[in-house]
Amino acid sequence: MRLRRRRVEIKSVDELVLMRRAGLVVADALVAVRDRVRSGVTTAELNGVAAEVINSAGARPSFLGYGESPTRQGFPGVCCLSVNDEIVHGIGGDRVLADGDLISIDCGAIVEGWHGDAAITVEVGAVAAERRHLSQATRSAMWHGIAAARLGGRVTDISAAIEARVDALEVDHERPYGIVEGFVGHGIGSAMHQEPDVPNAGRPGRGPKIIPGLALAVEPMLTLGEPDHRLLGDGWTAVTVDGSVAAHWEHTMTVTEHGIWVLTAHDGGESELAALGVRFGPLAN
Fold it and tell me: Where does this protein hold a divalent metal cation 1 (predicted)?
């Protein structure tokens, strides 16, 4: 049975297991799309790869038709494919990838009404070092944020850990990374976006308490310049105002009585959490 505390959805063990199934579909889709990324491939082709994986698993895409209303068309893609200065919500189409591009791939799937959501950033061919370091920094910030989650802690403990990790990595970078604060992580479960928000910066010890059954999508977005964004005419794609390149990494996770369980990682997050000295705590696989 699901309970709601201050609009926060608390999942049962069985519901988390279904979310794990959805998370594994997402993980498979991201690997399949990543493996097709190369110079000369269109973003529409990559969208088709994600659709094939999700459909063949008997799942449904979380993103296709998302946000549809009488006055607005829903999102037209199975996944978000955001290239270079596109931060999030890029739409697959006739854009052809070229050597040196960075592409962020954001994917969601639904299994029996329960969602999984994750994103990766992939290098196309030979990428400039500063772009590679940007993606690595974003990925590292995500894992440090996830690792900061503890039962009895607060949601913004994650936010503070992301920001602290970015600050630490900037020491070896020519200029500060931009932390995009206009888009945030979120609760997830029977809907893709739920309370609470999970900001990518801020003070610890705020927001809802982390308790068993709470599931969160942790997703930092960093830029090589300013973090300000604007929407393109398609009404979805968010790009940096200054044209700087962006990166985006995301995982869906929960905290059990045994430790942290990353629902969209094939190994549940075990290897990354071990490297950070954090307990891995799956309920089931």
Answer: 106, 117, 250
Q: Which tens digit of pLDDT belongs to each residue from 156-203?
A: 999 999 999 999 997 666 678 999 999 999 999 999 999 999 999 999
Please give the C-alpha separations between residue 143 and each of 73, 118, 137, 146, in angstroms, as whole numbers: 34, 13, 10, 5
CATH superfamily of the domain spanning 10-275: Creatinase/methionine aminopeptidase superfamily (3.90.230.10)
* 266 annotated to bind ligand: no
Quick one: which H or E segment has residue 218?
A: strand 215-218
Residue 209: other Cβ atoms inside 10 A: 13
How many of the other CB atoms lie within 10 Å of CB of 178? 22
Instruction: Write down the mean pLDDT value for the chain.
Output: 95
Which residues fall within 8 angstroms of residue 167, CB to CB, at 6 or more apart?
A: none
For residue 115, say whether it is annotated as part of any ligand binding site. Answer: no
pLDDT confidence of residue 6: 52
